[in-house]
TrEMBL record:
<feature type="transmembrane region" description="Helical">
    <location>
        <begin position="102"/>
        <end position="122"/>
    </location>
</feature>
<feature type="transmembrane region" description="Helical">
    <location>
        <begin position="39"/>
        <end position="57"/>
    </location>
</feature>
<dbReference type="InterPro" id="IPR029058">
    <property type="entry name" value="AB_hydrolase_fold"/>
</dbReference>
<dbReference type="InterPro" id="IPR050583">
    <property type="entry name" value="Mycobacterial_A85_antigen"/>
</dbReference>
<keyword id="KW-1133">Transmembrane helix</keyword>
<protein>
    <recommendedName>
        <fullName>Esterase</fullName>
    </recommendedName>
</protein>
<keyword id="KW-0812">Transmembrane</keyword>
<feature type="transmembrane region" description="Helical">
    <location>
        <begin position="72"/>
        <end position="90"/>
    </location>
</feature>
<keyword id="KW-0472">Membrane</keyword>
<feature type="region of interest" description="Disordered">
    <location>
        <begin position="145"/>
        <end position="169"/>
    </location>
</feature>
<feature type="transmembrane region" description="Helical">
    <location>
        <begin position="6"/>
        <end position="27"/>
    </location>
</feature>
<dbReference type="GO" id="GO:0016747">
    <property type="term" value="F:acyltransferase activity, transferring groups other than amino-acyl groups"/>
</dbReference>
Length: 432
């Protein structure tokens, strides 16, 4: 049940059919003329209510913490209209019809929820939608001893894989004995996930670049998307790709600790000390900053940009996929008051553009991407690219054609980013 596909397939199709039947049920009353006015009134009332809710909750209060696409807006308003029309069946009806109308409204509400979820495409199963991780625990690949580590190996671009190298990498939770501890931060992170590319799974594997990834909010530290993208690219590059940890910067999908050390938790210390210390001691990775990438999507993109700007001696590369502008940008007035006690100077000090303006970067690369249909973040990412370039960072900005703020932006941004990063990471001599 938890792994049931809720993006497409028979279950979703069945709900669409039941929703259509629910609307037909409302219009099946006889004589129709006497009940048509309540049905139309319910439809129009639902549309007006849906529009008002969008204007208040999304445009006014920004309760969803990020952009909402035109498709989602249209689905929501149409769905509210359908709900209003279905509930009109309660008007001057007997209990059997009232029960049918209420049941139909529940079906339409569920269908609307799944339709909006499918538009974003980030939660393909019931488990993912409920933020339950059903992925298996990862089997760790032993790291090479320090004496034989990456400084002495030949260039990765000249590496030849053995015949028994697997065609695909592996992913899994870092759970139980392999969970990343938090001695420095005490941050209650959920289990991270890891991706080992094919080249990491052979006997005597080469040391590989390292990438730390963070997902959006609400969201989960899943490696599925980045693993699929890297598997495709690695297939054309002798199985080579970074070893990836997808870490949890939230602790809870409903919370946003801002990737800072605050009363909400020491997310920054967890990611910059606990996670990186574990990676150094447990993974067969290259040690130099040019081989280390900090990456993120949406909320995680902001985190990546912040960490890359603040810690250039640790992270030589930034991959910011549809990231928001700075910590708490969606509700900056509330964050300023509650987290920074009204101290605007302190708040400005953690904004990536502010950090970049005060720092010079000797050997850093930054890549910013945004979906073509995500107009607000196209503007944000272009401004961030300008700030990075002005600070001396080698900078790239990519608009992802046809993408919004969902899975199309995530997968497209990762693909575009790695095409630019592969030569920088020594994984190819040209873009994939």
């Amino acid at each position: 049940m938890l792994n049931l596909n809720i993006l497409d397939g028979p279950v979703v199709l069945g709900l669409y059919i039941l929703s259509a039947l629910s609307l037909f049920f409302v219009l099946s009353r006889r004589p129709l003329r006497g009940y048509l006015r309540p049905a139309v009134t319910g439809l129009l009332g639902g549309v007006l209510l849906g529009t008002a809710m969008k204007l208040l909750l999304v445009d006014g209060l920004n309760l969803f913490g990020g952009p909402v696409s035109e498709t989602v807006t249209a689905l929501f308003i149409i769905g509210c209209g359908a709900l209003g029309m279905t509930l009109s069946g309660l008007y001057k009806s007997r209990w059997p019809r009232k029960a049918g109308s209420l049941g139909g409204a529940l079906i339409i509400a569920l269908t609307l929820t799944l339709a909006i979820n499918a538009t974003y495409g980030l939660n393909p199963t019931v488990a993912a939608f409920l933020h339950i991780n059903t992925d298996p625990a990862a089997a760790l690949v032993a790291a090479n001893p320090p004496a034989t580590s990456a400084q002495t190996q030949p260039p990765l671009s000249s590496w030849s894989p053995p015949p028994d190298m697997p065609a695909h990498g592996t992913t899994g939770q870092l759970a139980d004995a392999n969970a990343i501890p938090n001695p420095a931060s005490g941050f209650p992170a959920r289990n991270a996930e890891i991706y080992y590319p094919p080249a990491a799974l052979v006997k005597n594997p080469p040391a590989l670049p390292f990438l730390l990834m963070m997902m959006g909010q609400p969201g989960d530290p899943t490696a599925k998307n980045i693993a699929a993208v890297l598997d495709q690219i690695a297939a054309n590059h002798h199985g080579l790709a970074p070893i990836v940890i997808v870490a949890d910067q939230l602790s809870d999908p409903t919370k946003d600790p801002l990737c800072l050390d605050t009363a909400l938790g020491k997310a920054e210390t967890y990611l910059m000390k606990d996670v990186t210390s574990w990676a150094r001691s447990h993974l067969n990775i290259l040690p130099n900053p040019a081989a280390w990438t900090i990456a993120g999507y949406s909320n995680g993109g902001q985190c990546a940009n912040y960490f890359g700007a603040k810690y250039p001696a640790l992270w030589g590369n930034i991959l910011d996929v549809s990231g928001i502008e700075y910590a708490g940008a969606e509700q900056s007035t509330t964050v300023l008051k509650q987290i920074f006690a009204g101290n605007q100077q302190a708040y400005d000090a953690v904004k990536p553009a502010h950090i970049m303006a005060a720092t010079r970067y000797a050997d850093s690369t930054a890549i910013y991407t945004a979906g073509e249909k995500d107009a607000a973040l196209v503007d944000v990412q272009q401004r961030m690219a300008h700030a990075a370039s002005s600070a001396g960072i080698t900078t790239h900005y990519v608009t992802i054609p046809g993408a919004d703020h969902g899975v199309t932006a995530l997968d497209g941004g990762l693909t575009a980013g790695f095409k630019l990063l592969y030569p920088r990471l020594g994984l190819s001599t040209s873009t994939p």
